[in-house]
Specification:
Elements (H helix, E strand, L loop, with lengths): L2 H58 L8 E4 L6 E6 L2 E6 L5 E3 L22 E6 L5 E7 L11 E7 L5 E12 L2 E7 L6 E8 L7 H10 L1 H7 L26 E2 L2 E4 L11
Antiparallel strand pairs: 1-2, 1-12, 2-3, 3-4, 5-6, 6-7, 7-8, 8-9, 9-10, 11-12
């Protein structure tokens, strides 16, 4: 065998060694990625189960009289909201921290009125939006008057960042999946408009509101004899202070349950 053939053989051996080494490295890399992914999934699943377990455990300790309950075990929110005694609370399933949800961004005119000695004060009702992204709140904005009624506001709260939007003020009535707000003129004290909103907090168009009123005898009776819907006065609508029965919601990834709110102590 001459030198040329020997060099050729040696070159082939080197190529073979390099190929085997490269294949081994690729196999090791694939195994590492697979193990890492598996570990990540296992860890993520474990964290999710831990959050769900913490939320479920907290739910068992909720004070009597708790009304609206919405559980979000997902990564974005990992929390539970519940309504008790006119106050909205948030329990974080990761930090295990319980806090009252307050809305400092509201103006003086739209701020929620809290008073534990006023049965109508605070948040009266909470409803989860169909897309599970918002909670629609009905809350009192002024002390109860001598007639036993209290001016209310309709709000929409983002369940992720807790930002809140004031939708309308007046006397709020919930009819099925719709909210109607009888807007009161602050100067004259008279009713000047009827505004309709869906469960997502979106205002109904004039056409949809007319259809809703025609389909709903109660609201239609309240509106009868007045001017055009949405801009006119109508018979006074009774407010709903802490006495509106809430429906039970069951949706994927979000467990919710609502019962009649009460003024029981708020701390679990």
């Amino acid at each position: 065998m001459d030198t040329k053939q020997i060099k050729g053989k040696e070159g082939e051996k080197r190529l073979w060694v390099i190929g085997v080494t490269a294949a081994a490295c690729m196999l090791v890399a694939i195994m590492i990625v697979a193990l890492s992914t598996c570990s990540s999934r296992t860890t993520g699943k474990g964290e999710s189960l831990a959050v769900s377990g913490a939320i479920d455990s907290m739910e068992q300790k909720l004070p009597s009289g708790t009304g609206f309950v919405a559980k979000f075990p997902d990564k974005r929110r990992h929390c539970m909201f519940y309504l008790n005694g006119g106050h909205l609370y948030k329990f974080d399933g990761v930090t295990k921290r319980l806090d009252e949800v307050t809305f400092g961004s509201l103006t003086e005119e739209t701020a929620i009125y809290y008073n534990d000695n006023d049965i109508n004060a605070g948040i009266n009702e909470a409803v989860l939006s169909p897309d599970n992204e918002f909670i629609i709140l009905t809350a009192t904005v002024m002390p109860t008057g001598q007639d036993g009624k209290a001016m209310q506001g309709l709000y929409r709260m983002n369940t992720v960042n807790l930002t809140i939007e004031a939708l309308a003020q007046g006397y709020v009535t919930r009819e099925g999946d719709l909210f109607f707000v009888s807007v009161i003129d602050k100067t004259t004290g008279k009713r000047r408009a009827l505004l309709g909103f869906d469960k997502s907090g979106k205002q109904l168009s004039r056409e949809k509101q007319q259809e809703a009123i025609r389909a709903n005898k109660y609201v239609a009776a309240e509106e009868e004899g007045d001017g055009t819907t949405g801009e006119s006065e109508h018979d006074e609508t009774e407010p709903t202070p802490n006495n509106t029965p809430a429906a039970t919601h069951e949706v994927p990834a979000v467990e919710t349950n609502s019962e009649q709110p009460s003024t029981a102590p708020a701390s679990p």
